[in-house]
Amino acid sequence: MPNIFKLTWLLCLLLVAIAFNGCKKDDGPSDDIALNSFGPSPVLRGGDLRFIGENLDKVTAIILADNVEVNTFKSKSADLIVITVPDATVNGKVTLRTPQGDITTKTPLTISEPITLTAFNPAKARPGEKIALEGTYLNLIEEVIFANKKSVARSAFVSQSKTKIEVNVPDDAQTGLIVLSNGLADPILVESASALEVTLPVVTQLSPTPVKAGSTLTIEGADLDLTKSVAFNGGAKVTAFTSQTAAKIELTVPANAKDGNLRLAVASLVEVTTTQAVEMKVPSISGIAPNPAKNGGDITVTGDDLDLVTGATFGGGKTGVLQGGTATQISIMVPDDASSGSLTLHTASGKSVTSGAVLDMVKPVVSGMAPLDIQFTKELTITGNHLDLVANVKFSGGTEATPTSASLNEVKVNVPVGTASGVITLVAKNGDEVPSAQSLNILPSTSATITAMPIQAKPGELINIEGVNLDEVTEVVFPGNVAATMYGLKSAALIQVVVPMNAKKGVGTLTLITVNNEQVISPPINIQGVDPVADPALVFFNFDNLGLWWGDTGGPENDPALTLDGSNYYRANKDCNGWTGFFWRNGANNFPGAIIGTNVANYNLKFDVNVLEPITGGEFAWRLKGSSGDFWYRWKPWESSGSYKTDGWITVSVPLTAFSDGANSIADLNTITEDFGVAFNAGASKVNVCIDNVRFELK
């Protein structure tokens, strides 16, 4: 028992001692000098030998085999010593002399025989050509490395001995030093004293010049068979040549080649730039017929090299449509809006040629008008020539109207209310204006005539129709053949009428029916179910000056049949499935948050929308994101009925307090400094929709 007790007591003391020592080790770094590794081994005499360990800065000397002592260090730190191996060093173990005693390596250091590269020839060689490397112990070499890191392994050497290696220059080698490697994990690398010059192509002549796109260019010089590609200015590149020898390359000039120097690339990707520049040929114009030309008609251009033409610009910067042709003659359609001016022909090479003579445009000719004595709203017939060019008619008094019909020899137009007696002016599609020689005599109106009315109204809104003899009117019919049923004041000069709720939305005209069953057609009026924009400063998407930065589908559009007021709107027309971004900006770009600030409870988000086809699923996810949160409102009026379509444009109002980040409502628009916009999400549906005037507005 006593022996067992003593043994137990001794074990406890041992455990305490171990624990105590363990704690002492963790108190800080050790002062012990330790050698972890050294190398490389084998090493060259005169090469660097490295020792890695701890507290090595305390080492006083290193004793190499055969008692070769080194006490001058190339560098010495706590974790690394570097020495230069003396010439007297032989194979054997290494000893580090320290204040804590000698440390001897477990493995011997071996000395590599001194590999040298004394010469190579020739000093300049072509890719694929054999060169000879001379030196000592070249039988130890496993790899020859050329510039651009192009390696030739021992198995590909042409020959190898202790003093000589023959090797072929790689196709993609570049000019530079040659490096020999013994192929070990920590290899011995021996560099040449001078660079091997790798032959590159030399260009002495380019012909012909100028050269025509699509024709043959000849490049003459030396070592041209090394060329892999020829690049023209502008980015056109040729890799397949008509013929290629060391002295000559023939190639077909690309259509989009531009004037400038050529760049010949070899397999190493090194490029040689020619000193001579290529000049591209341009077409020449010798004639244009007819002149004057008619908008919408064709002209014939004659000249040389016209098969190079890829585009044509007419007066006013308008682009014509090429109709085909040959090298000496081409046909071009004149744009409807081209004006008189020079004709410019363009080529794919970026060059152009301009006609010396001005190409005039045919103008409408007025030979007569009837009747010359006419009342407001009555039809005027204008006769003459080239009247199919007429896009608009201006009358005296500042009124104007679009023709109801226009043919080669006749234009018909209704005289607008407010026209004064005097000449008329025909406005062609290209903006040319032609006044009439005759004058109209505007007669007093003896029947109901409209002189003023709104250009836009909402269903349910009371509008004023002003004019003369309006007491003759018995009925007002709105677009969609919807007769008005609610009126206000009615007199010879004024009719107040309420726009029917089921009037057809969009741009249309009113029909006023008189006691004599005459019909008076009004100027255009835009019937819309939208609220007017109360404060333009609070609009942040209107797709004119306030457009989108990005989106997955759709974009600004301006279809006269769909626009609210003649300006742009956003249009999406896509089968959507899952997240599909419509329109977005960020960074508080033109976002009016500072105007509203924390006054969120008193404002709505409003947007005008026209849903053209029924939406059956998903949602419109409106987002206002900033430093205080990521706030969303999900608009989906189709959710309860399963389908939703508007009858024209309507205005949707959303309280700003309805925007939330899931837990909190939005409280301060000043914090919206990141993404804002809308996307389709969370479902699938055909979405054919127009959106405009996204804004904030006081409730």
Low-pLDDT parts are 1-27
**Helix segment tally:** 3
Q: Strand percentage, roughly?
A: over 45%
What is the SS-derived class?
Answer: mainly beta
Brief digest:
This protein is mainly β and 699 residues long. Helices cover 5% and strands 48% of the residues. It contains three helices and 65 strands.
Your description of this structure?
This protein is mainly β. It has 7 domains: 34-112, Immunoglobulin-like (Sandwich); 116-198, Sandwich (Immunoglobulin-like), CATH 2.60.40; 202-278, Immunoglobulin-like (Sandwich), CATH 2.60.40.10; 284-354, Sandwich (Immunoglobulin-like); 365-442, Immunoglobulin-like; 449-524, Immunoglobulin-like (Sandwich), CATH 2.60.40; 536-698, Jelly Rolls. It contains 3 helices and 65 strands. The strands form 16 sheets. Strands 56, 57, 58, 60, 63 and 65 form a 6-stranded antiparallel beta sheet that branches. The N and C termini lie far apart (98 Å). The model is unreliable at 1-27 (pLDDT under 50).
Feature tags:
699 residues; mainly beta; Immunoglobulin-like; 7 domains; five-stranded mixed β-sheet; 3 helices; elongated
